[in-house]
Design a protein that fits this description.
With about 270 residues, the chain is an alpha/beta fold. It has helices spanning about 10-30, 60-70, 85-90, 105-110, 160-165, 170, 180-190, 200-210, 240-255, 255-265, and strands spanning about 35-40, 50, 55-60, 75-80, 95-100, 110-115, 125-130, 150-155, 175-180, 195-200, 215-225, 230-235. A hairpin with a 5-residue loop joins strand 2 and strand 3. The radius of gyration is 27 Å and the shape is globular. InterPro entries: Solute-binding_3/MltF_N. Belongs to the bacterial solute-binding protein 3 family.
């Protein structure tokens, strides 16, 4: 039974509840949403990714993709992985973003791709200086039938001419594979192999750093000039995020940010 003296309190109850709901809503609004954290792959692959003298991680791919992620409101956690392992981690969903990837059917089974936003980067053949076969090498298809010993990184795609070359079982059996390009450079220098395929910027930078620029030289043999893409794990990303990522990356490239970053590392 409601006493007459309590009747005036009844209209206040809905207002009190409303006030509490408003306060609760304000409190919830002040709580940050779940943080967006993305793992971004890097390795010793200058000028695209590398550890800098001050201990930080930099390079073209690192700076460019870290900027894109930050503009999308994501924190970035750098993960150092060799290429073959990075592909596996992407497939398992333990790596979110893998720059510098070429689109291949087997990779599309587990990865989204950004599309070709960055300008093409040439892969060329580097050989030991003074190699007798150098004068007869005009293109990669000249290698079968010769005694040329080629080195290649495990699970790295060098383009269609390389795929055609590896379709020759006799030549493929003589290719030396190693996960580290640094190891391959030293194999060339020691005469264990005759040459390797590498990005023209990466190759020249690494040879300078290793003190091998006078003993290993670039050739005029262009193996590929494809545009690498950014790959995303389908286990952790959706197509909308990839679309927004590609749009943000294009904005940076259109503004010349990639050229500015590359020039900074190559000129140094």
């Amino acid at each position: 039974m409601i006493l007459p003296s309590q009747a005036h309190r009844l209209p206040l109850l809905p207002r009190a509840r409303l006030k509490r709901l408003v306060l609760l809503g304000l409190a919830l609004a002040s709580v940050p949403l779940a943080a967006c954290e993305k793992t971004l792959r890097w390795d010793d692959d200058p000028p695209f990714s590398m550890q800098l003298p001050d201990g930080s991680v930099g390079g073209l791919y690192v700076e460019l993709n870290r900027t894109v992620l930050e503009r999308l409101g994501c924190e970035v956690r750098m993960v150092k992985l060799p290429w073959a392992r990075a592909l596996k981690e992407l497939e398992l969903g333990r790596l979110d973003v893998l720059p510098g990837a070429f689109r291949k059917p087997e990779r599309e089974a587990y990865a989204w791709f950004s599309g070709t936003v960055l300008p093409p980067s040439r892969n060329i053949l580097f050989v030991r200086r003074g190699l007798p076969q150098l004068g007869s090498l005009q293109q990669l298809s000249d290698l079968p039938g010769s005694d040329f010993r080629l080195g290649a990184q495990i699970d790295v795609s060098y383009g269609e001419p390389y795929r055609q070359l590896m379709a020759d079982p006799d030549f493929a059996a003589r290719v030396f594979f190693n996960p580290s390009r640094s190891n391959l450079w030293h194999m060339v220098d020691k005469g264990r192999i005759d040459g390797i395929i590498a990005d023209e910027h990466s190759g020249q930078y690494e040879l300078q750093q290793l003190g091998l620029a006078k003993r290993i030289e670039p050739t005029s043999v262009v193996v590929s000039a494809e545009s690498a893409e950014v790959a995303f794990s389908k286990r952790t990303q959706d197509e909308d995020f990839v679309r927004r990522y590609a749009q943000t990356l294009k904005t940076l490239v259109d503004a010349g940010e990639d050229r500015r970053i590359l020039q900074h590392y190559v000129s140094n």
